């Protein structure tokens, strides 16, 4: 997906199937939509957490919004 | 799917498995039905949001209605 | 599936995993049972809607009944 | 599965994951256990329906009982 | 799986994901763990049924216990 | 996985998706994490059972702990 | 994923789909995100356990946070 390539090194918001939202800088991804984010803020059921670097397994992803 | 090719650059409504509805201009898709939409309005449980560009992972898609 | 090929341009009823029922004219399908229907009436939890053309992702399909 | 080949043109009972039971004459199937049945009686939550010909997507099948 | 080959023509107990238990003589299986059983007794939520021959779709299987 | 190869003929604890725990001697496994265990004790919702030999379909496995 | 390669021999936190959290030293992984961790602390519904070495089936993984 060209859109994902253009989002590398930019901030994106990731919605996961369990309604978790990760916001961070996209630093890499592969064909399964496995993704690596840097400088991540996670929101899940109104709990916020700073996570730093996160690897997300693509099968959990619902949608990605470039910021 | 030829129908999806003909819908590129046109407005579509996307229903996802979690009952989220995304309406926007289809700008790209691949064989897994991963899709890129522009100028997206999202509706989920009566909450509306303007999201701009959105990448949707195909495994979440139920049906697509060209507008 | 030869049965699906013979149903092209005919009216079919599609049951999806979320109990949604789509009735329309089958205009195309592929090996994953992704399908395109025209002139669709959708029924879901007793709500009826006219949708026109619809692309259905095959992974949501339970059964197809040619009319 | 040789057992399925031997069941072609015979009456089978199909249990689906949503507890739907389809009984009909097996007229075809493929490697994914997609199946075509003729002369189908469907039972789901104590509602009976005559459906005629039905194409079932294999991913919904739990078990098949030749009659 | 050599263990399954050695169980052919022997009695096995099959636990499915919906907690259904099938006991019967294993007469065949394939690489997806699709299985054919003969002389099957099925137990599901304390209801017992004699089913004769049964084809089970492998994706429903949790575990197999040779008897 | 080299770790699984080194666990052959040793006792392991297997957690399944339905919270079932199987403890036994790992005698074989394949690329899908289908596994064969000998001398199995099963615990599920505080019910303990001796099962002897068990074939587990890999898609149900959450984690494996060598003992 | 280069990020995972760089995390080998380092401590990571693994979130699984059943909300189980495993923290330990990543000693190996494969293309399915199957992973081997050493010296694991597991937290699940406020129960903590020391597990030693653990093999996790990749299909259960939500996200990985290198520590």
UniProtKB/TrEMBL annotation, chains A, B, C, D, E, F, G:
<dbReference type="InterPro" id="IPR010920">
    <property type="entry name" value="LSM_dom_sf"/>
</dbReference>
<feature type="domain" description="Sm">
    <location>
        <begin position="1"/>
        <end position="67"/>
    </location>
</feature>
<dbReference type="GO" id="GO:1990726">
    <property type="term" value="C:Lsm1-7-Pat1 complex"/>
</dbReference>
<dbReference type="GO" id="GO:1990904">
    <property type="term" value="C:ribonucleoprotein complex"/>
</dbReference>
<keyword id="KW-0687">Ribonucleoprotein</keyword>
<dbReference type="InterPro" id="IPR044641">
    <property type="entry name" value="Lsm7/SmG-like"/>
</dbReference>
<dbReference type="InterPro" id="IPR047575">
    <property type="entry name" value="Sm"/>
</dbReference>
<protein>
    <recommendedName>
        <fullName>Sm domain-containing protein</fullName>
    </recommendedName>
</protein>
<dbReference type="Pfam" id="PF01423">
    <property type="entry name" value="LSM"/>
</dbReference>
<dbReference type="GO" id="GO:0003723">
    <property type="term" value="F:RNA binding"/>
</dbReference>
<comment type="similarity">
    <text>Belongs to the snRNP Sm proteins family.</text>
</comment>
<dbReference type="InterPro" id="IPR001163">
    <property type="entry name" value="Sm_dom_euk/arc"/>
</dbReference>
């Amino acid at each position: 997906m060209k859109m994902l390539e253009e989002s590398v090194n930019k901030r994106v918001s990731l919605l996961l199937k369990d309604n978790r939202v990760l916001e961070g800088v996209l630093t890499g991804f592969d064909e399964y939509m496995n993704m690596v984010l840097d400088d991540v803020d996670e929101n899940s059921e109104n709990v916020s957490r700073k996570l730093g670097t996160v690897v997300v397994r693509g099968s959990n992803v619902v949608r990605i919004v470039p910021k």
